[in-house]
Amino acid sequence: MPVYLPALFNVDPHASTPLPVQLFAALGRAIKSGKLAHGEVLPSTRQAAAMLGLSRSSIATAYDLLRAEGILDMRAGRRPVVHCTNLPSPRTVQGGTATLSDRGRILAQDPRAASYQRDTGRLSPGVPDEAQFPADLWAQTLRRVARQNHGDEAAYGGYHGAHALREAISTRLASDRGLRVSPGQIIITPGTQASLTLIAQVMTDPGDVVAVEDPGYLGARASFMASGARLVPVPVDDHGMQVSQLPPEARLVYITPSNQFPLGGRMGLDRRLALLDRARAQNALILEDDYDSEFLWHGREIAALAAHGTGCEWLYLGSASKALLPGLRLGWMAVPEPLVAPLRAAHRTMGLAANLHAQLALAALMETGQYRAHLRRIARLYQQRGMALYHALATVEGLHVTPPHGGVQIGAILEHAGFETACLTALSAAGYRMGRLSALCQQTKLEGLIMGFASLREDDPARLAALLRGVLEGAPGV
């Protein structure tokens, strides 16, 4: 498309300098300064005249002067093209710099940046297999709900979530997670990250203490840092966060009790009840991220931690990111009744609404049982893939892995320090995007790999084991 000239300069029809000369000078400056790059197309004389409110003859004269200077290529039947290779980088900003606020500098820090060797790649942790997404069913359902009229919900009336989805989630939480909340206690968000950001902004003041798992989810850490909170890492073991290590001044406690990210521990009932008791005693709020609870293969099912809450000591977070796709941007919060009004208001102020049609499509799948059938199918598939990866990694000396009991990734701990980067480099070169375990640690000293398996191919386990075995051959005792 041709350049829109009024965005680059203005000409003054009342000035003593003739209009063609003004135009020639202005275009020349734009080209020589790099605002107009080599190869960019200018409008025809007719288009330029209409844009600038000038005569075609004035435009033609200015173009001829630029052609004579050798910086404009003009050929019959074609629009003029900038022709000047020795130019500054296009649209380089000259002069001062934009200054971030203190809050902006915190927001601009991304603790996740050091987690990966590459931006894209296969078997990234926490990512489901897109090939398993029920595309035809989703498209059919989406078309149906898009053709319907939805009244106030299609405007701004249902900002905190479509009633149909909140009702479906309320029913599902009661039947599958033992958590009884009304549809009014459900708030729909674009995902868990949005839910965490909302909670961090509403429930903490700068300097408040937030207890987080160590190692733990960097997205949660980023949200709490952005609110100005002080993070206190709490070590985890095979059963999740060690409640005895909880700081007494904690205002919030963030946990992933169903499948601790990234190491996979599962918090038992005794520890869940102990954590609730501790939260009530010190007036803390537990943020239960029910991460990967859809994919639990082994052991007795345990109700959501929030199901055992007796007051306002809990908030429950969930999403469709692993069950369907992260790109759908659908998450939800279940909140105690006294927090509904303030969180709804803040949710609207922060602009965290989710797409209405996507909400209604998900609600329809939940209501008809198709969502549950999809979960059963992919849970079986992910179990097969997760165990295949585990068995292959278990043969690699110098690598400690435990059998996954659910989820879509494995945390593999390196038994000797100093090999993490070499392992990630080898995997990255082979097209894989694994996570760096040490980047998820604060005080805990661990090195290792976070390896997704949702989209595992048949040859991946042996290939990954061979790559890691080749790197770890030089480790002590290997």
Automatic annotation (TrEMBL):
Annotated ranges, domain HTH gntR-type: 17-85
The protein, known as: Transcriptional regulator, GntR family domain / Aspartate aminotransferase
Pfam families: Aminotran_1_2 (PF00155), GntR (PF00392)
Family: In the C-terminal section; belongs to the class-I pyridoxal-phosphate-dependent aminotransferase family.
PROSITE patterns from the UniProt entry: HTH_GNTR
Organism listed in the record: Asaia bogorensis
Keyword Transcription regulation: yes
Assigned EC number: 2.6.1.1
Annotated GO MF terms: DNA binding; DNA-binding transcription factor activity; L-aspartate:2-oxoglutarate aminotransferase activity; pyridoxal phosphate binding
Keyword Transferase attributed: yes
Keywords: Aminotransferase, DNA-binding, Pyridoxal phosphate, Transcription, Transcription regulation, Transferase
SUPFAM superfamilies hit by this protein: PLP-dependent transferases (SSF53383), Winged helix' DNA-binding domain (SSF46785)
InterPro entries, per the entry: Aminotransferase_I/II_large (IPR004839), HTH_trans_reg/aminotransferase (IPR051446), PyrdxlP-dep_Trfase (IPR015424), PyrdxlP-dep_Trfase_major (IPR015421), Tscrpt_reg_HTH_GntR (IPR000524), WH-like_DNA-bd_sf (IPR036388), WH_DNA-bd_sf (IPR036390)
